[in-house]
Amino acid sequence: MRYRLLETVGEYAGERLDEAGERTAVERRHLVHYRELARTGEPLLRGPGQRTLLGVWSASTTTSAPPCAARRVRGTSRRCCAWCSPSPGSGSCATTARDACTWTEAAVGLGPDPFAEPVEPAPPLTERCIDAPPPMRPELLTEGPAAGALVWMVNHDTDMRLINSPEMQRDVAQRRRRVRVGPPAEPPVPGGHVVLRPAAHRRLRRPCGSPSTSSSTLPRGRPRLGARLHLQQRAKLLNERPGRADQGLRDAHESLEIFRRVGDAWGVAEALSGRAESHERRGALAEAERDYREAIDSVRDLGAIAQVPMLKARLADVLTEAGRVDDATGERLLLEALDEAEGMGPDTSFFIRISLGVRLARRGRTAAARELFDNLMEEFRNRSIKLFLALMDGLYGWIETLDGNPAAALPRIRRALEVRDDPFVLLVAAHLPMAHLMYGAYAHSELPGEEHAMTGARLIGAAVALRPAGLYEASIEREMRERTEASLRAALGDEAYERVRAEGGGLTLEEAAALV
């Protein structure tokens, strides 16, 4: 009844309240109740009361709509935005990110764009608009819509092409000009500086002891939310940065310790997943397995079932790579994870299908891998970004070579390498261009003639030399490299192969990409 008749019951109650002349007073009490529920509950979202609060918020989602509607009628958009800004998705809890996006989009739409021209820098603030009940100081009230807009941006999950669209880039530029990052104020959304700052790469290099990136504490000794989330995000990004994996692992350790200390169960799960990825990148497979298993248990306890399939798929990859299960079992585990992800949207199953397709192709089932990748391309056809297209072009090129069509592989690999200087690729997948160079070496090694063999030798030399130091070479990569080397040695002879490969080791990425 609650969901089927809620609107009807609400209309009936409104009519009775109008008759009694009590609508305004009741709306006000309703509004204050849900405003304070969101405002006072936000700190509990980051500690031991997290599970309880998520349950309360989930049960209150529908009944909190009327006060927001009342705010819309009265036109008090700034207070509505301030009220929505602590919504449960405003941090890192992915299960409620959709609610955060929906509520803040509605709230921001009540008033003018807080980032419209002329853009004025935000005032320096040491507190948030939700730290104390109204009335708010004018500066805090003004920042409500800005905080709401940033919550929407961080949690927005739709057409991936929007990231590079002129409209989104204009919006980001306007937000950069307004939002101040670092002392004395932190971004109104934890981790917002990573989204907003073109200087994020430089900020990520700061040592943990610097004021704006360390686990500094509030007066009561509670680590700042922005600092602990920054450590967590930086750990994930540094996994991809050449020579920064050690720092990334230290950040992962520190963020996990902080989240455990404050009792943030979701933060613990995210930190465990990030640390597992760090271990996996370094080849510490036993440690990665341990962290993935604990992360799965953590998100299950929270009821965040949307995260379980992806974590299971990562665990399956680690178990297969470590030799804990055979290839057939690893494939079965990936299929089970894919079944669990059904109905959760294509983004949830994206990594699983990529991993499964690679496993299928490796075992000689290239037709099944193609079908899987074709379906993936079709689903993302209208909302793909350069990184996704480059990844798929490289995989298609690899499959072409496996199928005995190396000449058809090369155009795909050349296209994949066109994004080698893309800032987003460099930020989240710095190793990808080197993988594409190796695909190119493999394709040339399967083509007849000394010229192709020499090109392949140079490419394999460049791919190895440019590969980020400390990055673990997975067994599938090692098998392809060894097969490529064997073919090139047979074609050129050991001495010529070593000489030409050494030449390739001195090439820049630009020079190597031109050879493909």
UniProtKB/TrEMBL annotation:
Top-level taxon of the source organism: Bacteria
Coiled-coil regions listed in the entry: none
UniProt-annotated stretches for the region Disordered: 202-223
Residue stretches spanning the membrane: none
InterPro entries with a match to the protein in the record: TPR-like_helical_dom_sf
Protein name: Tetratricopeptide repeat protein
Originating species: Streptomyces thioluteus
